[in-house]
Amino acid sequence: MVRGAGTLLNVATVLVGSSIGVLIGHRLPQRTRDVVTDGLGLVTLLVAALSAAAVIEPALVAQVGDSAPVLIVLGSVLIGGIAGSLLRIEQRLESIGGMLQARLTGGADRGADRERFIEGFVTASLVFRVGPLTILGALSDGLGRGIDQLALKSVLDGFASIAFAASFGWGVAASVSTILVVQGALTAIGYFLGGLMPEAHVLALTATGGLLLVGVALRLLRIKQLPVGDLLPALLIAPLLTAVVAALR
Question: Which H or E run contains 39?
């Protein structure tokens, strides 16, 4: 199997799912589209809870101690949030979404349509990038160990993109650009590193990613528009803090 095939499969399923969602989306009443989005929010909350539960995994506790895992996630979110807000990641994501919307719609800025496109791009980008399957799947693909995990992620993302695109339109399809960049970079890292991160580091990253997905779920449920994009650096901080705590024990 060619390295990178998993990411290409993921891109294809999101594009196909987005096309289907756009085709059927305008035929659905707004109330139905809202219900679909709410359903996605609830499912995202479930996935977030399952991922965040990694904070109590024995392998992580054995590496850093009983009380450290929660503190590692807390420190990662705080440090990552500060870094992300200073870098204005959320704002930059929205700017990229606005630029793509202008290009794909011939530069027309129709207010609500533009906001809908940007929200679809940002939300889909966050959902498709955050999670253990993104990290582990892309790294495994880079190591030449197969694309099983990314194949599963592709199926999930394909179905999710149908529902997302029915509500948000072509902004969901535009999110494949972030899939290519993020998963492509992780695949390259896996290829050059020649090995996966220690299990404890992966679990800390997974738990932190689950917490960020809670923020995505709150956005989908229209409870609070958390700047989840600004929190993304926490995914880089979590393994580093785990290494520091483990070294100090």
Answer: helix 30-52
Q: Report yes or no: 169 and 211 within 8 Å, Cβ to Cβ.
A: no
Q: Which amino acid is at 126?
A: L
Distance, in Å, from the CA atom of 151 to the CA atom of 133, rounded to the nearest integer, reads: 10
Question: Tens digit of pLDDT for each residue in 93-139?
Answer: 777 766 665 665 555 555 666 777 877 887 787 777 666 567 767 87
CA pair distance 153, 133, nearest whole angstrom: 6
Please state, as a whole number, how many other Cβ atoms lie within 10 Å of the Cβ of residue 227.
19
Q: Is 225 exposed, middle or buried (0-12, 13-18, 19+ CB in 10 A)?
A: exposed
Sign of the alpha-carbon dihedral angle for 128, 47, 169, 228: negative
Instruction: Take residue 27 and report the two structure tokens written for it.
Output: 């035929």
**Other beta carbons within 10 Å of 95:** 12
User: Quick one: average pLDDT of 37-59?
Assistant: 85
Choose among 243, 248, 211: nearest CA to 60: 243
**Helical (H) or strand (E) element with 4:** none
Do 55 and 207 form a contact (C-beta atoms < 8 A)?
yes
Domain coordinates in residue numbering, the chain:
5-248
Tokens representing residue 51 in the block: 């991922």
